[in-house]
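Example 3.2
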Amino acid sequence: MSKSILLIGSNGQVGKELQQILPSYGDIISVARPTVDLTQPDTLRSFIRSKQPEIIINAAAYTAVDKAESEPELATAINAIAPLIIAQESQKLGACLIHLSTDYVFDGNGCSPYQEIDATNPLSVYGKTKLAGEKAIQETYAHHLILRTAWVYGAFGKSNFVKTMLRLGAERQEIRVVADQIGSPTWAKDIAAVIAQMIPQLTPEINGIYHYTNSGVASWYDFAVAIFEEAQQLGFPLKVKRIVPITTAEYPTAARRPAYSVLACGKISAITATYPPHWRQGLRQMLTDFKIGH
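Structure, written as tokens:
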């Protein structure tokens, strides 16, 4: 039986990948701004009620981490209040909500991969609003799957770390990159694939928080070095000669970021019976696809 799936945030990095992969799993209703404005609760409610989906995937978020420090109300509206409304409507419909969250709910003071049950302590407005969204969903008792992921990049979307590095690498000979923040770069297409894998398995027992990233760990510096190595092999136009590792203190930003935010993904791997691909594999494939598309 084909399911009716409402995809909110269809223009984002993960949303665009989901648009390509989901049609074989059900009847897709894809929506993004301006059709549905997540800062307008009443229009959001009435839209969901008019569509009556069996599954709702919320891939929309306010993700401008530094800008959120000066726009907390907007970040709260999109990351906390909108997920509450989506979950409330989901619960009334008896639908299942799949919601994307972030590693930034943790403070990064740990040194081993974070489990789903570990204590949260976000350092930034972005992290705090995403955590508020998680809690709001849980409190509605809607059937839900909150998928925390990290360091997301892809061929779609306005900007991400990979696209920024490619742009800077074409313009500059030297690039300075933070080397003391550790995480797992994760390809948007792999996130979309694991969401699709979960759809046929959405029994009431599959409920709560799950972690999913690509496997392996890296600093932003390691990630940048890998981007340029792979891009060079693929023939991207690059001027860059030196990548200089720097500390977080040498690159001040408005928002504080976790120093270590590697996520343990064993819980979801036990369900999908697959292990997440290594981040370098995802990077290589994304750059290959990106080159073909441009």
